[in-house]
Amino acid sequence: MKEDIIQLSIPTPFAVGDVYAYVLKGEAVTLVDCGPMTEEAEHAFVTQLKEHRLSIDDIDQVVLTHHHADHVGLLNLMKPHVRVIGHQLNEPYISQDPVFKQRQVDFMIPFFQQLGVPLRQNECEKMVKQSYTYSCTSHVDEIIKEGDRLSGHEHFFVMETPGHAQSHLSFLDERTGNFIGGDLLLTTISSNPLMEAPDEGEERQKSLLQYKASLNRLLRLPIKTIYPGHGQLITSHHELIEERFKKQEKRANTMYQLLKQKEMTAFHLCRKLFPVMYEEALFLTMSETVGQLDVLLEAGRIEEMQKDGIVYYRAN
Ligand SMILES: [Zn+2]
To answer: What region holds the Metallo-beta-lactamase domain (predicted)?
Structure first.
């Protein structure tokens, strides 16, 4: 049986615009992602379900591509019997675990200090708190990982595709080449690799390196159509990935040239790269900067050194 994929377009209060949730009708009625927790989103969600002769009561399970608020907030609307399925790293975010929130702050304060960002403790706390504004309080009932199959839709193969989020999963229907990609690859914007607090005692993940590996993996898969989290459906993902790689290379080269002129902190670089955006979108732009620095370090093109607890980078 060919799997029906129903696309629901849900408004978000974010610059990215609408987010898509998908309904899969197979042996189970499955919702993939569900939009932010706002009244507008709730209204759009319920109305569009109705247009497809469905209601919230028909949903058996929700599968998450990742933990960001615009993908999980409406979990709050789900009935208690609805199973939430996803990567285990969704759990502390979607449950809003207070211990984890504190860990995020405890990670961010010294890390940003090292990067030369003049942020006070209360500003870090505010930034962490803000990321939960449109999120939910829920739990992961069923943990899935690389190589698993979606229950109720056994031809969907589960892939771990980290980078944009550590919890990021994608789902490939091997029979049709349909690929539910979350925020892995979008037509409208290049999706950002984001910094995340590591597990206790672990090193920070290098999210841009992970992200590039995830995109490279897509090039080797028999994908026909990508059903993304935002923007248009993607039918020529090779071209789009090439474009993304080129843009990243250009940015890495710009940074390298800047570091050839003089050594700088990550924050200094961030202001040079994103002079207009950095204040408004500090976490996003710093994530991008740190990601590119990781790439340049890995390639041996730059080196880092510490002075008085602050890290400086220079070109080799
Ligand atoms: Zn996202």
So the answer is: 18-230
| 301 in the same domain as 214 | no
Q: Which domain holds residue 289?
A: 97-131+255-316
Same domain membership, residue 84 and residue 112: no
- In the prediction, which pLDDT does 1 show? 45
The kind and range of the H/E element at 2 are: none
Nearest CA among 289, 292, 293 for reference residue 304: 293
Distance 261 CA to ligand 1 centre (A): 35
CA of 56 to the centre of ligand 1 (A): 23
Q: For residue 21, report the distance from its CA to the centre of ligand 1, in Å.
A: 13
Structure token digits, residue 58: 């028909």
Q: How far is the CA of 216 from the centre of ligand 1 (A)?
A: 19
Distance, CA 112 to ligand 1 centroid (Å)? 22
| Two structure tokens written together for 113 | 């200090």
Is 155 found in the same domain as 76? yes
pLDDT of residue 113 exceeding 60, the answer is yes
Q: Over the stretch 165-186, which tens digit does the pLDDT of each residue have?
A: 999 999 999 999 999 999 999 9
Q: How far, in Å, is the centroid of ligand 1 from the Cα of 66?
A: 7
Given pLDDT bands bounded at 50, 70 and 90, which one contains residue 189? Answer: confident
Q: What is the dihedral of CA 13, 137, 78, 232, to 10 degrees?
A: 30
Q: Which residues pair with 227 in a beta bridge?
A: 180
Ligand 1 center from residue 249 Cα (angstroms): 22
| 305 alpha carbon – ligand 1 mean position (Å) | 32
Domain identity same for 230 and 312: no
CATH code of the domain covering residue 202? 3.60.15.10
Residue 196 within a domain: yes
Domain boundary among 201, 235, 269: 235
In terms of domains, do 81 and 209 share one? yes
214 and 110 belong to one structural domain: no
> Helices (H) and strands (E) in the chain — how many of each?
9, 13
pLDDT tens digits, residue range 54-75?
999 999 999 999 999 999 999 9
Output the CA 43–ligand 1 centroid distance in Å: 21
